[in-house]
Amino acid sequence: MKAFLDILLPKILPADTGFICIAHEGKQDLEKSIPRKIKAWQTPCAFVVVRDKDGADCIALKKHLVSLCVWAGRTDSLVRIACHELEAWLLGDLAAVEKAFNIKKLADQQQKSKFKEPDKLSNASQELAKLVKGYRKVSGAQKIAPHMNIQNNHSHSFNCFINGLGRFITPDH
After folding, report:
1. Rounded CA separation 58/70 (Å)
2. In sequence order, which residues have a C-beta less than 8 Å from that of residue 95 and are 6 or more positions away?
3. Which residues does residue 52 pair with via DSSP β-bridges, in sequence order?
4. Nearest-CA neighbor of 12 among 168, 132, 128?
5. Which helix (H) or strand (E) holds 38?
């Protein structure tokens, strides 16, 4: 996720907006560090927490992560869940995957039922590996991110992330 966001966020954020993506060693590490890092952060800033769903109940997971931010004193934090995993966001834009890996006519498969709503796939990383021979999560995400169309993605959770980020950085958006 960090590798992907490091490339995607400059396409979305205003040019004068800096950001730092902090990677974590799994979901438990993320949940333990949210209150500690948010409380310790001295510089005025905004916090965005993004986590894969990984089979959890999306609503309960989001409530839990929001509660950690609130406990740390940041009621203004944005929490978004990638359903089920980052690869669903990538499968939501097969044109970007096609460009990144030079796979002719891959974007045409976006009309197949499983790619129309990639968030419903519980095995998005496996589906992506079937489409891209030798696909590796980090390098693949880095390769696809520059080609992502932030206005046209079939992943509902990706669109929620983009829309939430838009409202978050420009509250009157």
Report:
1. 18
2. 106, 107, 110, 147, 149
3. 82
4. 168
5. helix 27-40
pLDDT in tens, 64-108: 999 999 999 999 899 999 998 999 999 999 999 999 999 999 999
Name residue 48's beta-bridge partners. Answer: 78
Structural element, H or E, at residue 52: strand 48-52
Residues 6+ apart with CB under 8 A from 155: 83, 88, 89, 91, 92, 93, 118, 119
- Gap between the Cα atoms of 19 and 13, Å rounded: 9
155 neighbors 119 (Cβ within 8 angstroms): yes
Contact between 19 and 9 (Cβ < 8 Å) = yes
Domain residue spans in the chain? 2-85+155-169, 86-147
Distance in angstroms (rounded) separating the CA atoms of residues 93 and 63: 28
Q: How far lies 76's CA from each of 12, 20, 59, 173, in Å? A: 20, 17, 18, 16
Over the stretch 115-152, which tens digit does the pLDDT of each residue have? 999 999 999 999 999 999 999 999 999 999 999 999 99
Residue showing tokens 């839990």: 64
Structure tokens at 92: 């939501």
